[in-house]
């Protein structure tokens, strides 16, 4: 392997949206830097259950309500 081509791998502190702190090793930033997360498993809908609330409505039902008056009605289609 070539010397001096790899980024520095060092320890930083990661702070979650709840304020919890974790120490981890990374190539991000400089040694001792603090990374404050604005999206994590506590705030993102994929982990907090928000996505389930959205899918409970049903995509087909939502589509039908949105485009109910769009295009030809069933009566207009019968007259052809």
Automatic annotation (TrEMBL):
Classification via Gene3D superfamilies: Ribosomal protein L31
GO cellular component: ribonucleoprotein complex; ribosome
InterPro entries associated with the record: Ribosomal_bL28/bL31-like_sf, Ribosomal_bL31, Ribosomal_bL31_sf
Signal sequence extent: none
UniProt keyword Ribosomal protein, yes or no: yes
Entry keyword set: Ribonucleoprotein, Ribosomal protein
GO molecular function: structural constituent of ribosome
GO biological process, alphabetically ordered: translation
Quaternary organization: Part of the 50S ribosomal subunit.
Protein family per UniProt: Belongs to the bacterial ribosomal protein bL31 family.
Protein name: 50S ribosomal protein L31
Native organism taxonomy: Bacteria, Pseudomonadati, Bdellovibrionota, Bdellovibrionia, Bdellovibrionales
Gene name of this polypeptide: rpmE
